[in-house]
Write a structure and sequence with these properties.
The protein is an alpha/beta fold. It contains eight helices and eleven strands.
């Protein structure tokens, strides 16, 4: 709560893109530069990659536990991507929003649709496009984390993913990573000032009108 008596409900910042277009790098830079941003930690059934930690990068669960979470309606969104399931636990997100913290989501268009259906007023969605298909292919190969058949599958899926760009509030073409980060920061700054997110604003204005 500020000295004016105005608090702010947090927002959900959804960043989506084809694999390799830069959403993960942008997310990390945003987190490094803004202490009020926190990363949503998804639950997933996919195997853990080298260097990943349970609870930090993902909550790694088996398919049975994931299905139980779905049945108990504990997930804000969930989707199947490249044969594995991903989902966002609802409770920690709601706690962060109520405390005025903003939560970044690294999810695809399917997840973004589900979040929009459940909590559109809290959602700010950004789709990140690569500057070209050739550059996207180069970035995927440069990561060197996945075998060639996985890279090929990601490239094949990219066209379908990019077809959903019109469902997002904002579009960024990631030609330069620092420029793209600055653009997302500008979006966040503006959205934090949105009237509906400022709790107690009506009372503050009323007091101004009364001469306080």
């Amino acid at each position: 709560m500020s000295s004016s008596g105005i608090a702010r409900r947090g927002l959900m910042l959804v960043l989506s893109s084809p694999s390799g277009a830069g959403k993960t790098t942008i997310s990390r830079k945003l987190l490094d530069g803004d202490s009020n941003l926190t990363m949503s930690v998804s639950a997933t059934t996919r195997p853990r990659r080298p260097g990943e930690e349970d609870g930090r990068d993902y909550h790694f669960v088996d398919p049975t536990e994931f299905n139980l979470m779905v049945n108990r309606q504990e997930l804000l969104e969930h989707a199947k991507v490249f044969g594995n399931y991903y989902g966002t636990p609802t409770q920690p997100v709601e706690q962060a929003l109520a405390a005025g913290r903003d939560v970044i989501f690294d999810i695809d268009w399917q997840g973004a649709q589900q979040v929009a259906e459940k909590a559109r007023e809290d959602l700010v969605s950004v789709f990140i496009l690569p500057p070209s298909t050739a550059e996207l292919d180069r970035r995927l190969h440069r990561r060197a984390q996945d075998p060639e058949e996985v890279v090929a599958a990601r490239m094949a899926k990219a066209s379908d993913e990019m077809s959903h760009y019109a469902e997002y509030d904002f579009i960024i073409i990631n030609r330069d990573i620092d420029e793209s980060v600055a653009q997302v920061e500008a979006i966040v700054t503006a959205e934090r000032l949105r009237r509906q997110r400022q709790v107690g604003l009506s009372d503050f204005v009323k007091h101004l009108q009364e001469g306080y």
